[in-house]
Design a protein that fits this description.
Layout: H1 2-41, H2 45-63, E1 92-108, H3 118-124, E2 146-152, E3 154-166, E4 171-191, E5 195-220, E6 223-244, E7 249-272, E8 276-300, E9 317-322, E10 327-345, E11 348-363, E12 370-373, H4 376-392, E13 404-418
Antiparallel strand pairs: 1-3, 1-13, 2-4, 3-4, 4-5, 5-6, 6-7, 7-8, 8-9, 8-10, 9-12, 10-11, 11-13
């Protein structure tokens, strides 16, 4: 009992001592407040502020706890936030975005008319073989004295983009998907053994997947080079149809090119001001092992005009020419890009850019195609068709054959959410 009494007595003395000290300090702080007000009323605000700073320190020592609590770390700190924007997944950060592209396409097929090549005109026996620059095996018979072309080479498409950057900021990955489609309607009329009228329509579609590994090279605090190595996987597809009721002819043409091409390139990134940056760069892709498949179906009714001369047919000519095996195709392409980036808010990035892509290809059609025909006359017509097309198109893949080319230029607007 005596020990408990002594300990309680000592605690009371300690508590009273601390209370008296706190009371004295608070009394001193109150007197200093009155002193500061006095200086302020007499026109000495700086002196009053110095005294108030001393008051803050006294009360901080009196009332602030000396035991420091551990810093609380929320369990969701790595989720995307508007402050730092850093969702870490697979030890890196991600960007998800899209682009709206307003595209314009251009096609070049080498020789457009049989009159451009005397050999072709001699083989065909007639000079009216205009062709579309879009399809591969789309030779047709149409009069050309008067022609009218309705071409829609513009295409508004949607292009998604996903990119990843490792936390070391030394490397990353990027995936971009792009597509394009266009149409072309061709009307012609003329006087060949009487008034003739013809029509052809083309539908073209392309899709391109690009997967790249990015290597970041910091040049300075606001400039860097990004080297790109990867693959392009895509296809070019054409569906065409031709009809001339007066000539008694109908044709269907389909071709498809598929390829996987290694690509390499770079871009230069420069950040200026605080929320703006621009990118300049491009990449090149090439493969000699692309493949092409085509099919050409033709029908000339009894009494119609033959596709290979001005004479009338005595029987129906129905045949189909097609590639029995995939044709080796060499494809080379160039992609150039200029883009302006704007980051008005954390995590949100907007893009405005210009892009140009050029595809060039040559097919090695040295192997004879498959041929199915209705009768003997149809078979002979199919053989003549292949003979003409061999001179007209790339055919044997020789150096004298013109390369086909297809180019896209587009202006695009994009948005990216940066984690």
């Amino acid at each position: 009992m005596k020990f408990r009494f002594v300990s309680n007595f000592i605690f009371c003395i300690f508590l009273i001592g601390n209370t008296n000290l706190l009371f004295a300090q608070e009394t001193k702080a109150t007197e200093m407040e009155l002193e500061a007000e006095s200086y302020e009323e007499r026109g000495y605000p700086k002196k009053a502020n110095l005294i108030r700073e001393k008051i803050k320190r006294i009360r901080k020592e009196n009332f602030q706890s000396k035991e420091y609590e551990p810093i609380y770390i929320p369990p969701n700190q790595k989720l995307p936030t508007t402050k730092n924007g850093s969702l870490e997944f697979l030890n890196g950060t991600w960007e998800f975005g899209f682009r709206f592209l307003s595209q314009n396409a251009g096609f070049r097929s080498g020789k457009e008319w049989a009159l451009d090549d005397g050999r072709v005109a001699f083989q065909a026996g007639t000079p009216y073989f205009p062709r579309s620059p879009m399809g591969y095996q789309n030779i047709r018979t149409l009069p050309y004295q008067l022609e009218w072309e309705d071409t829609r080479k513009n295409s508004d498409t949607f292009s998604p983009r996903i990119s990843y950057q490792h936390s070391s900021k030394k490397w990353g990955m990027e995936y971009v998907y792009m597509q394009f489609n266009t149409t072309r309607n061709f009307f012609s009329m003329g006087d060949i053994a009487g008034f003739q009228l013809g029509f052809q329509t083309d539908r073209f579609y392309s899709a391109d997947h690009k997967l790249s590994v990015l290597v970041h090279d910091e040049y300075s605090h606001n400039k860097r080079f990004v080297w790109k190595f990867g693959f392009r996987m895509g296809s070019l597809n054409t569906n065409s149809s031709q009809n001339s009721q007066s000539l008694g002819q109908t044709g269907l043409f389909r071709d498809s090119i598929q390829y996987v091409a290694p690509s390499t390139g770079f871009k230069f990134v420069h950040q200026f001001f605080e929320n703006y940056s621009y990118e300049l760069g491009g990449d090149l892709f090439f493969t000699p092992v692309g493949n092409l498949k085509y099919r050409r179906d033709s029908f000339t009714s009894n009494g119609g005009v033959s596709r290979f001369g001005g004479e009338r047919t005595t029987t129906d000519e129905v045949y189909s020419l097609f590639s029995e095996k995939r044709i080796l195709t060499t494809i080379v392409g160039l992609n150039l890009n200029a883009q302006l980036n704007w980051v008005p808010f954390p995590n949100h990035k907007f893009h405005l850019g210009l892009q140009a892509i050029q595809y060039n290809w040559r097919a090695n059609e040295s192997q004879a195609p498959g041929l199915r025909a209705l009768n003997q006359e149809s078979y002979l017509a199919g053989v003549r068709d292949y003979f003409v097309s061999s001179a007209y198109y790339e055919a044997d893949g020789g150096k004298g054959r013109p390369m086909r080319s297809y180019g896209i230029s587009n202006l695009y607007f994009g948005y990216t959410y940066v984690y």
